[in-house]
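Here is one such tokenized protein:
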Amino acid sequence: MLLRCAAAMAVAFPLGLAVAWPGVRWLARWLFPPGFQGLYYNRLADPFILKIKFALIVALVVSCPFVLWEIWRFVAPGLREREQRAVRGWFGWAVLLFAAGVALSVGFIMPLVVRFFLGFQDEWLTALPELRDVLDMTLWVPLAFGLVFQFPIFLLMLTRFGVVRPATLAHARPYIIVGLLIVSAILTPPDVISQVALALPSWLLFEATLLIARRRERRDAGMDTTAPDDGDYGLDLYPGENPNKGA
């Protein structure tokens, strides 16, 4: 499995090299206001090293479906049929939330952060953005948003399999919020804007997850007999069999 995954990344790596500098130019035009003169670098090896890093990230993204498929083929034989259905359903939501986190960071958060800091320029101060700093931000901030947006999937799995109850999560809300702030501070650049921009949607996702988990708990307990099944919306937030069906 590992060799096949490595081979897939090796096949995609030349594509990453081909799109590295066009991708950097596109990011610079997107992040910086009109009239931006370009990026600078102080270390001679920076363009080469950062191009390799960018190509590796592209290769990982392109080969990700094949890698995930290989992981699934390795894990699936050890799961029961009901567990396989649950994992397949959650996987779709995980991909959607990861894409939403990346889109939010690239489309809104990073341009906002960059233009905020460029606003400190005046006749005495001129910004000279370095290639290394800009690429590090554009590679790690979207990844941080995508990973933190997996938090609802993790909580739903815990409540679905009975590891924790929604009431426990509600009681621990202050600690969870503090934890989200700490994780946001670790995963984002050292500025308050990007940290709050990551922590705020994470908190909203937590509250939405808590509502879904409570609804499911009431339905499983037979307290909410009028609530439609998730399937009525063409969407199964908790894949697998409903314990109340056939009762």
